[in-house]
Specification:
Blueprint: H1 11-46
């Protein structure tokens, strides 16, 4: 779009999709960390 080879009419939709992708990636990473922390704490408690 910036090079002028594409119609810039969909720029806001493209930016919205980019922001949604960033948010989804951050949420996925946080949930993965929570899952790993939960599993580690379960194994630590079970090992006592």
């Amino acid at each position: 779009m910036d090079a002028g080879t594409m119609d810039s009419e969909g720029r806001s939709s493209t930016n919205g999709g980019k922001i949604c992708g960033i948010i989804a990636t951050v949420l996925w990473g946080l949930s993965a960390l929570i899952l790993i922390g939960t599993l580690v704490s379960m194994f630590v408690v079970a090992g006592r």
